[in-house]
Protein 1
Amino acid sequence: MSRHLAVKAVSTACLFALSAGFVFASVATDDSAARVQKILTDTPLIDGHNDLPWEIRMLFGSDVVAAHLEVDHSAHPDPAAPHMMTDIPRLHRGQVGAQFWSVWIPTSLQGFEAVQVTLEQIDLVKRMVATYPHDLEMAYSAADIRRLHRQHKVASLIGIEGGHQINDSLAVLRQMYDAGARYMTLTHTTNTDWADSATDSPKFQGLTPFGETLVHEMNRIGMLVDISHVSAAAMKAALKTSEAPVMFSHSSARSLVDHPRNVPDDVLTLLASNHGIVMVNFYTAYVSAERNQWEADHAAEKTRYNSPPYSGLYIGQPERAKAALSAWEKAHPIPVTTLAQVADHLDHLKKVAGVDHIGIGSDFDGMEDTPVGLEGVDHFPALLQELMRRGWSDADIAKVAGGNLLRVLADAERVAVKLSQQRPASSVKFNSTAAH
């Protein structure tokens, strides 16, 4: 063979190899869907936070039947129909194995009213599950999740999203556990009487002594301590106090988006030592720094045009204020937030906290819009496929999908068995004078 022919042969071989490599890469990429399906067949996908119960209360007057969860709302032909991110067909398409349903109530509800409305929301979840017994079933333990996953049902768990919902009572806390709640977020958007919120002015620099007692009691009964929504100081105090792994049911990485709802790196390091979990949030302003800035700018413009009762360029002139804000919005379109940016947060959380301490906490039906590519509960597999494209192993995917949360829940259950044998239920009463 001549030198020219030899070079040509080598070039042809290289081109074939490159082409084959391209085909292989394409096949491998296409194969990610099958890989994810296999993983989620073996490991339940567990979402840490979904606000559908409050949506049903607001949109349908708590009438579960009227919500028609058996219908795929993403394909609803009526544009005037309520926009929902969750329904049973999409839960199954998204291969959701377990869902923590949030029984959130507004922080404007306090005292005995807060307790009542929380119980009404717990009742709503149970009625929702009873309405669709072939698809949903209540779950109260890690073992329940695994059993229901084998039965191809969505294990339905309850999470209380705010310490204001127990009226500062350990007795109410215990009764909420007996009613089915398996986590409680220590605060929501405002401080409780014993813990600082991430989005309120600091009052206690973390937790009060009653707050610490409450964390110990949650450990004793087996209720997960959720530190989404709390201040960084309260995060650290809870991590120091808790005798069991804690969770962030729906939070992202503060190093990527400097929003107080996200988790700082030093807290992520402490979380790993606690063997807890941070479940990444899809809320656009927590995922995208550009969207977070836009939200702040938008709020400032709204205030500038009309800030009753004393200020604003167009105060007392609502139509002029509305027109001015519309013009600003047209000149400053909302930045697009994407599935890839959510994956960026998972990459960072994995790097700092470790792959054993991360999960998914979508916040579906608790936000006005979603990242592109994550429009509803049917899109969870797409996020896992993106992680695969970034080099995450199948074992890593299984952990973030649900394996880590199963471990955290089982660990909390084991701690509760031990602590309940060591000490009785706490009789400590909240003392408002001591708290302040």
Protein 2
Amino acid sequence: MVDLELKDRDRFADLKSPYRIWVIAAIHGTRAPLISIHQAVAARFQVGDRIVYLGNFLGYGKEIIEVVNEILQFRLAVMAVPGVIASDLVYLRGCQEEMWQKIQQLHFAPNPQAVLEWMARQGAAATLAAYGGSYDEAVAAARDGAVTLSRWTARLRGQLRLHPGHESLLTVLRRAAFVLPADPSPDADPTGLLMVSAGLDRRRALGAQGDSFWWAADRFDELTSPYGRFGRIVRGFDPAGNGVRETAVTLTLDGGCGFGGRLVCACLGPTGTVIELLGS
């Protein structure tokens, strides 16, 4: 078994025994390439497949609301296929979704203004604006004190609820998704597949990664051998912007969507073998 305590298991997605997995990289608020990828996946999708979004569908771009709406509409279309169940579609938390959650809890931060400034530099200001907030308003509220800031975050959460389905989607995000090896014996080859948003610290157990999934991207290149039972680790965002690349153990699918590049989607076999690579 994967080293997850019972309390952690709902934070991860066990894909069980998929036929294929369609893995969609960071979108960053850019709708047109997502529509193209969805159309391509819809034309190829079969019952038994899984679809995994690797996080960072918020942030940077100017079409964040439209991107989330497109994700929700595509979910409805896939769920209408006979034989498909809700757990066949998985959404991971990326650093953008993590920051959005922190913005809504900003009144608990010991230094909210500094937190805001840092998150704005990381692309979170675009998500804030998309949901009816503004960076200047947030800074002003932070300066005015905890009570004013608490009222501001409450209004922001109210703005989020004006968009049907958005709050529900953003509360069911997983930290990672995985496929366990077909052979469960301890001495079997590590053929499992692990999917993360941006990073992984090989020194930590899966259940102890914490925010490494979002902020340990610089350690992803340290993965030169299997991580436990996982012989292939896939991520959807590389903040260094080094593009799509594959090693014997890792696969990075970030084509630079949201920064003038393309959105990448990979069709993977259960062990992480690349069957098809789509880009738009």
